[in-house]
Amino acid sequence: MKKITRILLSIFLAFSAGTMAQSDSATSDLNLDAYRQVNDFVDENESCFECHANTKYVLIDEFFGREIMQSMCKDKIVTRDEYYSMVHNSFACLDCHAYEYEEFPHPLEARLEQPYQCIDCHGYDENYAHFRFEDIEMEYMESVHAKGIENFSCWKCHDPHAYKLTIGADGTSISDGIAYNNDICLSCHSDFSRFELLTEREEINILETHDWLPNQATHFGSVRCIECHTSISDSTFVAHHVLSSDKAVKKCAECHSKNSILMASLYKHEAKESRRRYGFINGVILNEAYVIGANRNTFLSTIGIILFLATLGGVSIHIIARIIYKK
Ligand code: HEC
Ligand code: HEC
Ligand code: HEC
Ligand code: HEC
Ligand code: HEC
Ligand code: HEC
Ligand code: HEC
Question: Which of 72, 225, 292, 305 is the most buried (most CB within 10 A)?
Answer without folding.
Answer: 225
